[in-house]
Design brief:
Elements (H helix, E strand, L loop, with lengths): L7 H15 L13 E5 L11 H19 L3 E3 L3 E2 L4 H10 L3 H18 L10 E2 L3 H16 L3 E11 L4 E3 L4 E2 L2 E2 L7 E10 L5 H8 L4 E2 L1 H11 L1 E11 L2 E7 L10 E4 L6 H4 L3 H11 L16 E8 L7 E5 L2 H6 L3 E4 L5 H9 L22 E7 L4 E2 L1 E2 L5 E2 L2 E4 L3 E4 L26 H4 E3 L6 E4 L3 E2 L1 H5 L13 H4 L5 H5 L4 E5 L3 H17 L13 E5 L2 E3 L2 E2 L10 H8 L1 H10 L7 E3 L1 H24 L7 H6 L1 H23 L3 H26 L4 H18 L4 H18 L1
Parallel strand pairs: 1-2, 1-26, 3-4, 10-27, 13-15, 26-27, 28-30
Antiparallel strand pairs: 5-6, 5-9, 7-8, 9-18, 11-12, 11-14, 11-17, 13-16, 14-15, 19-25, 20-25, 21-22, 21-24, 23-24, 28-29
The structure holds zinc ion (2 copies).
The site of one zinc ion has 9 residues, from loops.
Length: 720
């Protein structure tokens, strides 16, 4: 190989072979002498192939993993595929293949791309959430949370296509029509499984203040999902009972003119007893109100026909039921105070008979009583549905028995295996149509019973997808949640994920706390799965989201083919800070390409010429102060690069790498200006600086960085 010109393809092939041969990325034993550092990248969907967003995610995580390894830490950098779910099922339907085959094909393709990009995952630890050995633990988690009272069954509104005889997810409904047959869909109520998160909202909120290595985007998405409102709680009388109500307007409680109740409030049946009101409420619940709940002008309102009273209110407060409460404060009751709250004023304007202000009580007729309040907090975040009427997902380990009702499958009978020889068409429910799946003996009484045919949403699998990498593959069957290594690796040092992962992370934080309280994760006292977290924005092109339709998709394979993996990695890191949307353009690519070419050529030229430099003591003494300055530049530059990398601000780190190179070149210019040529001491000092620079470059452009570093080390060994 001609060593003086930069041939990315040849260099990268050679490096990758060497890494593979020496198992460079195998996870070390998490012993006591080296700091265990688990870096968790996002778990990709098996969605076809890697896109630029993935490359951004893994380039950041990989740079950090390599940086921590170089510092001597024991690094775990593993990942797995979030392989179940709708995108894979829809892709399989379109291609007339089995989802299991499609997932395997995508996974293998994506793994090959990751290897070509030089990402230093421990590929021995890769997992697919759709493997039975994996989803049996999703089923175990379901049963564990069910037993702890954190999973329950309730009705939910879902879209239904009469023609395809199936429920549809939101992304399968286009303008009210079925994605597959284009017939109109309608809303129906179906029993669904829910995850109860309410018991952990307060703690998820409180712990946010303790999370030190979380960047601002990741924290703000957690706050947004919580939807915390501070205010006061006070007691009203409704019927013969006390009703606690919330308002964020502590000073204005006495100006309330109505009461707004969530349709999910536990007292709603009692407070809205009239048959016609019940009917109106049923209609509201089946109307898909979740979609319009945020708009006070359009959100449905049902008059309960009852009222609540308080000593400080001159008139009773009429009760209205509306999901608007849920959208603002969660499933609670709230005072309507049109005088100070714009949304309440909009509501009051829509319901005849609701006043904008309370009637002032006639003078001296009643003593002035101030509402007695206590501080209170409400959260908008609420329980969510975890089951879907779909084929491609983790089977729910439940049996429906006529005698016993809903019966959990025994844990020793897990996994409940999903049949894989299914080619879904999008019509009906493939699982319900398979007698050998559906017909089963009741685990409790032995009578003939029916298996649950809903599957778990892949969001449920994701609740624990940060766990498997931390367990050696051979131990996963028996010890997924109990293996001793978990205590070393968890909590993960850093999660690196897209800024749209806030919901996943929020629910992972809930489940960690639940598993701490239930027992398996008792060693994680804070109940936090990630000690640090970085959310990055997406990669777009021409100012718009990349899409086939717009013809602006940037294909990482083509770029790697043309420029090499290092250039692509360096460009994507350099182009924007993680908190900014990266609008892809070739400028960053050209910059990275130019930098790598010139560093490569410069270093090899110096290597070739160093022996010819004259070894002149007087000349060396004359430029001593310049060498001293070069050393300082290196010290400062390397310090800054390390600090930037530790904060995962890789765009700054890369910029500082390129600046340091400029300074090393500048050193040469200054020496030549002074003496006309480099002395041996100057050339050696420069090679030493280039070695430091190559070492700093390794996390970002590992193939070129390591190859340059080795060439320099080889020479110093030969020079003895
Ligand atoms: Zn249809
Ligand atoms: Zn039974």
């Amino acid at each position: 190989m001609d060593r003086t010109s930069y041939d990315a393809g040849a260099i990268e092939r050679e490096r990758q072979e060497k890494w593979g041969a020496r198992g460079a990325f195998s996870t070390p034993e998490p012993g006591a002498e080296r700091l265990p550092t688990y870096i968790k990248p996002s778990s990709p969907f098996t969605s076809g192939k890697l896109h630029m967003g993935h490359v951004r995610d893994y380039a950041i995580g990989d740079a950090y993993a390599r940086f921590r390894r170089a510092r001597g830490d024991a690094v775990l950098f593993g990942f797995g595929f979030d392989a179940f779910g709708l995108p894979a099922e829809m892709a399989a339907i379109e291609r007339h293949v089995r989802p299991a085959d499609w997932v395997r094909e995508c996974g293998e393709r994506m793994l090959a791309q990751m290897k070509r990009l030089g990402f230093s995952f421990d590929y021995e630890r890769v997992f697919y959430s759709s493997d039975p050995s994996q989803y049996r633990w999703s089923q175990w988690l379901f049963l564990t949370l069910l037993e702890a009272g954190l999973i329950y069954r309730d009705d939910a509104t879902v879209d239904w296509c009469d023609h395809c005889r199936t429920t549809l997810a939101a992304l399968q409904v286009e303008d009210g029509r079925c994605w597959r047959c284009h017939n109109e869909v309608r809303l129906i109520r179906k029993p669904t499984w829910f995850l109860r998160i309410a018991p952990y909202l307060e703690e998820n909120d409180r712990r946010l203040g303790e999370l030190e290595n979380w960047d601002e985007i990741s924290l703000s998405t957690q706050r947004y999902i919580l939807g915390r409102s501070e205010g006061v709680e006070l007691d009203l009388t409704a019927g013969d009972r006390n009703l606690a109500v919330f308002t964020p307007h502590a000073e204005s409680a006495s100006q309330a003119t109505f009461l707004l109740l969530s349709p999910r409030h536990p007292d709603v049946e009692r407070l809205a007893p009239a048959p016609e009101v019940r009917e109106a409420l049923d209609e509201l619940r089946s109307g898909g109100w979740e979609r319009s709940a945020r708009d006070a002008k359009a959100v449905p309102i049902v008059e309960a026909g009852t009222s609540a009273s308080a000593p400080w209110a001159a008139d009773p407060l009429p009760i209205l039921v509306s999901p608007l409460v849920d959208a603002r404060y969660g499933p609670t009751a709230a005072l309507g105070i049109p005088a100070v709250d714009e949304t309440d004023a909009t509501i009051a304007g829509r319901v005849p008979g609701i006043r904008l202000e309370p009637t002032s009580s006639p003078p001296n007729s009643q003593p002035d009583v101030e509402p007695s309040t206590r501080p209170a907090v409400r959260y908008r975040a609420s329980d969510f549905s975890i089951s879907r009427q779909r084929y491609w997902g983790t089977p729910i380990p439940i049996v429906h028995c006529e005698q016993c009702g809903v019966v959990p499958v025994l844990t020793e009978d897990l996994p409940v295996v999903l049949p894989v020889d299914v080619e879904p068409t999008g019509e009906g429910n493939p699982l319900a149509e398979r007698p050998n799946f559906v017909d089963v003996a009741c685990p409790s009484c032995g009578a003939p019973a029916r298996r649950e045919t809903d599957t778990l949403d892949c969001h449920f699998d994701a609740l624990w997808l940060w766990v498997p990498s931390a367990v050696p593959p051979a131990a996963r069957d028996a010890e997924m949640f109990t293996h001793p290594d978990l205590r070393s690796w968890l909590p993960a040092a850093r999660l690196v994920a897209g800024s749209d992962s806030g919901g996943f992370v929020f629910d992972q934080r809930v489940v960690t706390k639940a598993l701490r309280d239930i027992g398996p994760f008792a060693f994680m006292e804070e109940g936090e799965p990630f000690a640090g977290c970085l959310f990055h924005e997406m990669v777009i092109a021409d100012g718009r989201k990349m899409s086939k339709h717009l013809g602006n998709v940037v294909d990482p394979d083509e770029l790697v083919e043309r420029y090499g993996a290092d250039t692509v990695r360096l460009a994507i890191l350099y182009a924007a800070g993680p908190a900014k949307t990266l609008n892809w353009n070739d400028g960053a690519l050209r910059f990275a390409s130019r930098f790598l070419h010139s560093l490569w050529e410069y270093t090899h030229r110096r290597l070739e010429t160093v022996a010819e430099a004259t070894d002149d003591e007087a000349a060396a003494a004359d430029t001593g102060f310049l060498r001293e300055r070069l050393r300082k530049w290196c010290d400062n530059g390397l310090g800054r690069i390390a600090a930037d990398t530790e904060e995962l601000q890789m765009h700054k780190a890369v910029r500082n790498v390129t600046r340091l190179f400029e300074r090393i070149q500048d050193f040469e210019k200054r020496v030549i200006k002074r003496r006309g040529e480099l002395s041996r001491a100057d050339a050696e000092a420069q090679l030493e600086s280039l070695g430091l620079l190559a070492e700093a470059l390794v996390p970002f452009a590992p193939h070129a960085g390591e190859t340059i570093l080795r060439a320099l080390q080889r020479r110093s060994v030969e020079a003895g």
